[in-house]
Structure formats: C-alpha cells, structure tokens
C-alpha cells in the first residue's frame, strides 16, 4: 500500500486518511482549528494563527495574483477573482451545465449532478454550501441518534419498559385495549426503532439548525460586500483628492503665468508711454525752434523792405 506524508508532521498515512484540502493527518486535524475562508466560504485547518480574516491557500494565491475579488453572479459569494464567476461555479458550469435554483437558499447556484451525488443529500437539489451544511446537520443528528452502550443502555431500556408498563396499567380501559398514552409511547418506540431518522424529524431539525449557518454566511457575505464598498469608496476618495490637488496645482501655475504676463504688459505700457512722452517733447522742441527761425526770418525781411524803401 502506498503511503503519503502529512503536510505538517510528515508522518506516513494512507491517502484516504488525509484531509482533502490540506492533506493533514488525523492528529494534526485535531491540533489545528477548523475555520471558514473569508472568500470561498469553505472550511480549512488554520496552521498559523493570524489576526486578519482567515484565507485559504487558493484564495490567498488568487488574491496576490488578481487582487480583490468581486461577488459571483451565481452564488453571490465574493470569490470571483478573475471574471464575474468564482472558480467553483465556473468549473461546475463546464461540467454539469447551467445552474438551477437551490432548494434551500433559493439562489441559482445549484448544478445537476449525478444521481449518486444527489442521493447523499436525500435527492435534494442543493448548492455546495447548503450541501455541506446539510451533511453537517445529518452527521450531528445521526451522532445524537446513537444509543448509549453498556449499563446506561440497559438502565435506560429498563426505565422505558417500566414507564410503559405503568402507563399501560393506569391508562388501559376495561376492554383490555391499550390506552392513548400507551399507544403513543409504543408508537414512538416503534418509529424510533424502525427509522432512527424520520423525514419529518430531520426536516424540522435541518431547517432549525441550518438556518443559522446560512443566515450567518449571508451576513458575512453582506459584511464582506460592505468592506469592499468601503475600500472602493476610499480609492475613489483618494483619486478625487489627487485630481483636486492636480487641479489646484494647475490653477496656481495659470495664476503665476497670468501674473507674469500682466507684469510684462504693464512694463511695456510704461515703456511705450515714456517713449511717447519723449517723442512729444522732441516734437514740441523742434516746433519751438522752427517758430523762432520763422520769426527771425520775418524780422530780416522787414528790415530789408524798410532799407530799400
């Protein structure tokens, strides 16, 4: 027989005795706690204690490769790292076809599996999470249905027979037929002996016990979605703040450019006004000189006319 090593203690065991996901032996499975992954919602053994939310190896790898996931369009679990569907629903869709409604959570995330697989859940059409919850409740119920062994079993059986005998003697009518209480007790014992897990009993226990984990999972999904929304809002806020800083920087540059151009324009205007004033002053000086020359020439002509006359 081929033996395989435990991934933690390296002890050799048959492959059937190792856990499916982590390949841990029975002793290591008892040592490390069984937790639920934050993203894919599957259970795994936490080998290292951490203050953050527990994440399985597969989701941890996908988180580093693809970043934060989105909600799957089928099962509504935040495990769609690459695309709009989680890897579980994507592989099931390729293998079994389009999904159908789950009988428990009413989401379109169950798949038409083989008859052998459906017989394990009493022929119900369930998604993976509801199937795991169903099997857990079934295991706990069957475990509770086991009868005690040894002295406790004999004592309980003796007490039951004594109680039934007393009930028959006290409640039996005159015609010798068993009374209602005795009949009910016999019916209960017979039904328990014939079918340890009746359909009605299991249905009620399943509905009561499975509603809590499913409700918890839905709350965790909503909480994860809210966390994702908060992260997205923070990113949007940072982007808007960065854009606002860029706009303010550009506005400051435009104001500085406008101030420089306005300064140059004022300097040009002052220089042009100065040049204009100097030109006007030169023209006025030239005009005065010309007037003096005209006056001088006029006086010279008048003297010539007087002397000639």
Automatic annotation (TrEMBL):
Region (Disordered): 141-184
Coiled coil: 216-300
Biased segments, Basic residues type: 154-164
Cleavable signal peptide: none
Pfam families with a match to the protein in the record: FAM76
Keywords: Coiled coil
InterPro entries per UniProt: FAM76
GO cellular component, one term: nuclear speck
Biased segments, Basic and acidic residues type: 165-177
Highest rank taxon of the organism: Eukaryota
Family: Belongs to the FAM76 family.
Entries under PANTHER family matching the protein: LD21662P
Protein name: Protein FAM76A
Species this chain originates from: Pocillopora meandrina
């Amino acid at each position: 027989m081929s033996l395989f090593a435990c991934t933690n203690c390296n002890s050799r065991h048959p492959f059937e005795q190792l856990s499916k996901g982590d390949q841990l032996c029975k002793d290591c499975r008892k040592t490390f706690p069984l937790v639920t992954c934050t993203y894919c919602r599957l259970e795994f053994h936490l080998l290292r204690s951490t203050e953050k939310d527990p994440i399985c190896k597969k989701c941890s790898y996908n988180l580093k490769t693809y970043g934060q996931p989105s909600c799957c369009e089928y099962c509504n679990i935040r495990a769609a790292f690459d695309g709009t569907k989680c890897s579980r629903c994507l592989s099931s869709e390729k293998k079994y076809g389009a999904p159908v409604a789950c009988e428990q959570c009413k989401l379109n995330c169950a798949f038409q599996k083989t008859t052998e697989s459906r017989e394990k859940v009493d022929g119900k059409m369930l998604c993976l999470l509801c199937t795991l919850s169903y099997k857990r409740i079934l295991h706990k119920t069957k475990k509770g249905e086991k009868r005690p062994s040894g002295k406790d079993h004999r004592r309980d059986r003796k007490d039951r027979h004594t109680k039934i005998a007393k009930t028959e003697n006290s409640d039996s009518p005159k015609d010798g037929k068993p009374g209602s209480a005795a009949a009910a007790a016999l019916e209960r014992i017979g039904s328990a002996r014939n079918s340890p897990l009746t359909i009605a009993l299991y249905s009620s226990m399943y509905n009561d016990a499975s509603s809590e984990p499913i409700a918890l999972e839905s709350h965790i999904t909503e909480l994860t979605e809210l966390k994702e929304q908060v992260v997205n809002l923070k990113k949007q806020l940072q982007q808007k703040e960065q854009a606002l800083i860029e706009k303010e920087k550009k506005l400051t540059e435009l104001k500085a450019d406008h101030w420089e151009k306005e300064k140059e324009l004022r300097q040009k205007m002052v220089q042009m006004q100065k040049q204009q004033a100097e030109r006007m002053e030169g023209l006025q000086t030239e005009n005065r000189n010309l007037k003096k020359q005209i006056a001088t020439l006029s006086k010279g002509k008048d003297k010539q006319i007087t002397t000639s006359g």
